[in-house]
Amino acid sequence: MIAHLLRRLLISLLLLAAMSFLTFWLMHATPGNFFDSLKLNPQISAQTIADYEKLYHLKDPLVVQYGHWLLNVCRGEFGYSFYYNVPAGHIIASRLWNTFILSLTSLLLTWGLAIPLGIWAALRHGRMADGVLSFLSFAAFSAPPFFLAMLLLYAVSQWGILPLGGMHSAGYDRMPFVDKLIDVARHLVIPAVVLSLASIASLQRLMRGNMLAQLRQQYILAARAKGLPETEVIYRHALRNAFNPMVTLLGYEFASLLSGAALVEIVCSWPGLGMLMLTAVRSKDVYVVMASMLMGGVLLLLGNLLADFLLVWVDPRIRYGAKK
Prior knowledge:
The chain is mainly α. The chain has two domains: about 30-75, no CATH class; about 90-315, MetI-like fold (Orthogonal Bundle). Helices cover about 75% and strands about 0% of the residues. A two-stranded antiparallel ribbon has the order 1-2. Strand 1 and strand 2 form a beta hairpin. Helix 5 (about 90-125) crosses helix 8, helix 6 crosses helix 8 (about 175-215) and helix 11 packs antiparallel against helix 14 (about 285-315). The longest helix has about 40 residues, at about 175-215. The mean pLDDT is about 85.
């Protein structure tokens, strides 16, 4: 297991380096840079721009620039945001918690509903309830999230039961702690539900298919022939094997905790990383894009490692490094 972990960590570092270099190259391969707009500003002197370019080695070859950025990252420095005029790490940290709250809420809502719904649909295979749930799943999976967000915002504007956007209400700073939690939760409802609907639909269909495949296996027939209670057959035997493929998906879902959904955040005016990334890409703010990509890449690789070890815990037949 230790040897497998060391191999995976080495491969992960190489993949992370490749991902970061590709992103760095793509940001420089597109026409223009941030300083093109600064040169049009009469309040900013040419000497100031030249000092920036010298400080961040922006006139050096691409590989040299990337090497300096990589060395700075190893020291805990993620570069400078020229658009916001602050260190890139600071501007990302100011939005990090907001996106984490939204993504974690969506993740818990998705898995808390999709798995029970998938099991419930599999146990009612061929009935009207299964057909209705399948229709609703296909409808939710097909609808674009940003369109659903606009529909919900319009409905809320007519009913007036939830806030129309943002993360806080006016006077949030003067609210008691409990009222602050309630206020954030009310603002979370629309973006979290929109982000969860498509994922619930797809995961529910996968869980339903896995359960149906397991319920048709011979070991299930043998368990029933032994006289085991139906609940034990379903939840102890069938569910455990049906859940194995879902563990791998859980690793990828872990990677989305900080990525959020840019369009949903923009439509719902949620102050997260989505709007920040859009602004950074449009303004060619290279170091903000690189820092965001680096966090997403690290979470993706950690999610894969987490999925590997969860599979070992769920399925005792899997043993990494075991000799045949």
